[in-house]
Write the structure tokens for this entry.
Amino acid sequence: MNMTPKQIVDELDKYIIGQEKAKRAVAIALRNRYRRSSLSKELRDEITPKNIIMKGPTGVGKTEIARRLAKLVGAPFIKIEATKYTEVGYVGRDVESMVRDLVEVAVRIVKDEKTHEVEAKVKPEVDAKLTDAICDSRRARDMVVDKTVVHQDLLASKLENEQIELSVLDNAKPIMAIGGPEISIGNMFDGLLPQRRHKRKMTVARARELLTMEECDKIIDKDSVYAEAIRRAEEEGIIFIDEIDKIIGKAGGSNNNDVSREGVQRDILPIVEGSTVATKYGNVKTDFMLFIASGAFHISKIEDMIPELQGRFPIRVELDSLTKEDFKRILTEPKNSVTMQYSRLLEVDNIKLNFTDDALDEIAEMAAAENETSENIGARRLHTIMESLLEDISFNATGEHPMLDVKIDKLYVQNAFKETKKKFDLTKYIL
Ligand SMILES: Nc1ncnc2c1ncn2[C@@H]1O[C@H](COP(=O)(O)OP(=O)(O)OP(=O)(O)O)[C@@H](O)[C@H]1O
Ligand SMILES: [Mg+2]
């Protein structure tokens, strides 16, 4: 991960409109991980990450920034909802599970990398096994078999879709949860329990994937994978705590809910402050993990958090409310924009949508107005508007007609919302 802050922001810009401050803050935090990694060990141990808290109204891109960030960084990353730990019946509040989940992610990343490294090495072995399996399956169907020909055809990728029977490892390992960290019994007795195999039908292509994994597993040194995974979780891991405002009670509040929320904050505190968590791959230190918290904070304030926890989130960024201009851009600019999504979906049923510029203006205007008159749900409003705008077309498109061009212009939008618009105008007068 050595993207510059600017590159990170550019990448986020492809999906998220505005919110420059938040983008810059996460970009700097990420880059600082890289900067720290190039320092001497002594200095490195002194520098802990500056955790970030993002505050902003609902539907303005907080979670979206986290999601995009996750795809961007090759680092172990997980996102959890803080409310998970306050759920009724959630006894014992296993907040350490967030660290264990992060390590799982790290193990998967490292394992994938190592697999890629050794894939070429195991290919001859895999091809040989595949050839045998194809020959066996053909013989079972009373076919005459020439192993050399099969092998050649296999190498020429002619047999990828052929159905064969392959005996594969039973991978489902029993998992036992004894209050604390879950322990996979399969792992404890790895090598002790006889590995069970059973025959399954599949294509040659699928069989190749499975055999490759099996053969790679044999030569990859598990201990070094786990050690590297733990190192990465410790040094590069990012934990995104969403909905953190939901675990904050009213200042001085004393009802049961507030008490339990404060309890969750106290439980989370040691993890954010730095502590050691036992996982099935070994102990993991949380001191250098980066934590990004986010919440709408419209009922509670950041200052209502227990002070110790507040102190561990020195960087605070506020996300802005979205304006009509933002909405218009969100409709078309992001790589996964709403209008693009609907266009693609309807193209399947032979409808080609064309949005005129004044239609986009109208939709953005409506979104802004509705957010003002009813509840402000940010960019999510665009989804609800688009859904009802295209309801008629979505229902009637069948694909059983030649490609139809449908122009969505201002008039179309206005007509589609004639009824609702009246209702909205009325709500203005209802006190
Ligand atoms: N600035 C933005 N640019 C592009 N799309 C956005 C933006 N803000 C929100 N969206 C879109 O709106 C939807 C909701 O956004 P998101 O989940 O990020 O909201 P949030 O800020 O996390 O809100 P909440 O506080 O309710 O969790 C997503 O589909 C997202 O793509
Ligand atoms: Mg969110």
In short: Residues 62-63, 242 surround magnesium ion (ligand 2) (CB under 6 Å). The longest helix spans residues 97-140.
